[in-house]
Amino acid sequence: MHAILLYFLNLFRPYPQKMTVLFLQKEALCLAAFAKGRSETYEIQRYAAAALPPPLSGKKRWDDPGAMAALIREICQHKGIPLKALAIVLSHGDGFLSQLELPELPEKEWKDAVLWEALQYVPYEEGTFGPVLEVMGKKGSPLSALIAAAPLVELEFFECLADMLSCCLVKIEPMALSLGRLLPETERGTALVLSREGTGGTLTAYEKGLPIASETWDTLPSAKVYGPYYEKEKAAGLSPEEEAQRWKSQVKHLTSYLDEAMELSFTDLFVWGEKEAEDAFLSTLAEVTSLAVHNFPSSGFGMAAERFEQAHWKLDRQKILPLLGAAQKGSPPYYLDLQAGRDKEKWLPRRFIEPLTRALAAMTCVLAVFLFSSHLYLVHEKKQLLEQKRAISLWKDRLFQHRRTEQSIHTLTELLSEAEKRTLSWHTLLTELGTSLPSECVLESVEDRRSSKGAILEIRGKTRKRQPLFIWTKDLSRLPAVKKVTLGDMEGKDSQDKTGKALDFTVLIHLEKGRTHDGTD
């Protein structure tokens, strides 16, 4: 669960582009501001170092975080160092880091077993420190564990310090991890690193940039064999020669253990310290270990060598090295956060909530922008649809009017066509009537009557003589379209005929059903 929370913590809280690293030692503190360069390597921008006043030095460092925060804020304001993202480097005396080989046990069993075994090596009393255990390797291959620990009083101090400085606490890690990131790529296989602090030091063995074993001494041999460095040993009854011999035996034991038990062969030793190592110490170290002694190269500072030589802090390059290593991100197991071991049940969820809240807030903002954009888009689409609807309504009215006009034209066309047909059908018959009508007869009206049996043409007129009328009706009956011709009663035929007056007559012409009046077959 812890690993999952850390994964999401790093996922939601990206590593900062700019960061300030604090290295708090017993008698001094170092601060450096870093910014990520084009090569994704952090370059040092500003640096400051100061000696701690007596009330804040030694073990008193952890007693008053408020006074320490005021001192750091004053230094940062004077040097122009920002305080937004803060990373902490623990010296060898303030933290513990070691690597252990894991036994071949089921996963549920070896987690508890390894944690119990690892805690046996932590030089702190039970319940007073926060451990972090990082398992390395994959299933089916040899596994090992990297254990880191620091006293709870230190973790609480740095957390309180970050709150007082109003900055984000990025990480707290041991100096051994920071220095391991600065080893040259060619030395990442196996290498020894000696860290000198005050009169003592720590010898750490690295494999692939990770510490695998270390040994710490309160006092290292020096050319000043009778100096103040050996007052404690003299009080313990050990002469400088005896102390040096004891130190040599411990170094031999460490190197022989690494050579034999872990099958590692070391040829190079990198030295870190506030001051350049004395010749007597280096000669003794080379005699015991047969190693070539080196200082950390200046190329590890993330900037060109010429630029570093021009910097005013170049004389403090040994102090800057742990700061530079801590600025580099790395990835698990190269990145251990000791705060995770302080109080995982309370602290880690609280730290997880902050980036999760930011992530949810960012997602909410993105969702709000998306919804607002969608709303604007839908409003725009709705407006366009309404305009199209209005345009369609206008065209619909025009289309309806056009259809009405078209229907009227169609009806009129049918009427005209029917009238044309009827006119054409009457043309021949009327022509026959006009040409064959006797001169004694006069037509008054011609009426067309329709019935289910066919069309009947009723002709009314006047005649002065009957005989021409009879002949005319016979001629009409011979027309092809005529079925029969009937002569109606003639009113006043007797009296009018004798007196010579015109007689009214009615002629009914019965036409063939379905035949036209044009007189053709």
From TrEMBL:
The keyword Transmembrane applies. The chain crosses the membrane at residues 359-379. Keywords: Membrane, Transmembrane, Transmembrane helix. It comes from the Bacteria. This is Fimbrial assembly protein.
